[in-house]
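Sharing a chain and its predicted structure for anyone who wants a worked example. Both blocks are below, sequence first, tokens second.
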Amino acid sequence: MAIRLQKTARPMLACEICSDRVIAARANDGGEFVEIHTSRALPAGVVTPSLTGNNINDPGLLSAVLSDALGALSGRFRDVVAVLPDPAVRVVLLDFDALPDSQEEAVSILRFRLRKSLPFDVEKAVISYHAYPSSEGLKVVAAVALASLVEEYESVFAKAGYASGVVIPSSLASLGVVDASRPTLVIKTSDSMTTLAIVDAQTLRLFRSLDHAVSGSMDPGRLVEDIHPSMVFFQDNFGSEVERVLVGGNISVTEIAPVLQANFSVPLEELVPARYVGGGLSGEVPAASLAGVAGALLA
């Protein structure tokens, strides 16, 4: 689900901006796997993701890094999926009896519904949504960000010589590599946030964001405490149990497996299967860290 989607051909490039690096990737011609990828480190403080305030503190430097990373693999392509840090975008699941067919009218209703639940003026936000039938009416997945922040990220891609026709938060992008046909818990981590998503029957059933910016790291023990109620909620509301857990972002299955397997009997797998990843260029990028760009390209 993109924050903004222009009517262009499907991009062959994706680039994720993180607080400590950028990750660029190009899909193969058939869009079946990431053909090539690379990353570039960012100095501390260049990008400070948040829902409010400036996110990019040195646009010139970030544009240069983007140009270098994308230039290493872009070839003739200039359209890119811009994958934003999760702390810069609020993702919410909402229930409605119905929504108007008009997108403009539907967005107005979403703004009204969200006006008291955001730390910024919803009238200054850009909203993208996807609605699908549920037993109660409609379930809506909405991505919300300040328009000024989206423009901030778009501008650094433009200065680097690329058009960000699609803008999407990393956690939602990552779901593009998930087989959502059976109950699956997806754990996606960054340096300041962990997102939990449960998918089933090709539908997003639950989405939670856990902020650990204060502690500076993800605590596996605390994560177990947060996972348990999510799994119980899914079981109570949908009558099924989670059948597998996928782990990605800046943590791998091997790092978190001892804690999770001590508390849950559900099988653990890497969020990005090895078959989806081709060769890397400069900058070692673990497969787990490619979730955002891989999902953006292969969804």
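Comments welcome. The CA atoms of residues 7 and 165 lie 8 Å apart.
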